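Follow-up to my post from last week.
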Amino acid sequence: MLPSEERTLRWLCRIYSVMLLTYPTAFLRDYRREMLVMFRTQARDVMRHEGGWGLLPFMMCVTWDWLRTTLQERTDMTSRTRATALAVMGAITSVLLLFMIVMGGLVLLLSLVASAVTVFALPLLWLTGKHRRARQLLAASGIYVAIYLAISTGITLAGAVREPNLAIGEEVCADSGCFAVDKVETASAAPNTSYTLYWHLSSRDKQLATHFPGKGLELYMFDERGRKFVLPDNVNPNPLDVTLPPGETVRQRVTFIVAPDARQLFLTAKYRPFTFQSLLPGELSLVPHRHARMIRIQ
Amino acid sequence: MTRPKTPHNLLPLTPAVFHILLALAEGERHGYAIMREVAADTAGDLQLGPGTLYGCLKRMVSAHLVEESDERPDPALDDERRRYYRITDLGASALRAEGERLARAVAAARAKRLFARNTVAAARTRH
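User reply:
Got it. Predicted complex:
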């Protein structure tokens, strides 16, 4: 076998050895070594007979086998282990739910710090031979992320159903300020129609200047068919990223180019993916959800 | 109340369990040899991945259908890390019972002329 093939084989075995961590500890104690030996022998045979490209379908089969049997072995736990796991997950969910609703930003910050620590600690634990600890840390992180995503999706979905649409002139308020569209002007921009929205953002704090958290907040319109109309490329992509002097109001305007056949139009805003705010509970959602608070423009 | 462990209580066996028992019927084998034997027996239709194979073996050991073997058939020729498995008496009985069950099913299907060979043979007889 060529040195490059040996290297590939070594890497595949490392990847498979990490994949094996998702199996229950008791199962791994009994079969991990043998599964690795079997994987290595199989991969070597595939490489000898079918070449490097043969490894691709082989790895797909192995991945499918891993996914299916991990779930099977996990659900095959004893009822006592399952009850304990359910109780722990229930407790984590309750505490997390409470904290997420009360102080979502802090929870997200702590979660990001914990994720960073996990990413650094995992290889360290593994390399220093503390495999059991590493597996426990990985499992705990996985459970935490799953619960975080589930709760955040739930909050998003629950919030989207409750909030009614707003009309022109009606204010929508956040902690740092209130936003409203005051006036709309339409003009022909053949073959489309341009909509100029005059809006204001007023401070709720009479003593201190506040910064409205508009960085990364995308303002866009959409119609009854779900078509999205974004701001043109040549304008400020973060129009709501403004500092509000105490007790004062900032007034600006934005223009959208809209398809001429749009009958109903709404204005809304959403944080762009992978911004800090987009990961907050109430913003992050695993399933497509209705648009956030909407202002009916037409 | 738990039912007494008889081969008939274990039927029908899953295809994976049946073929693993079949592979072990001729002698002790390690995991990879079982996997290859099963693939050969089924003309590649049943490919057991490491997760499926060892998951099945775990359940089969706890059901006393197979057991781990302490001896290596030929230690000089084999990797000492490999664990060998052998079929138990209960496993052999379950294999025979499942084989008979499948044979009865095939006979019933043949009687209803579901197989092409029977259909052709029947057509020839008629002509």
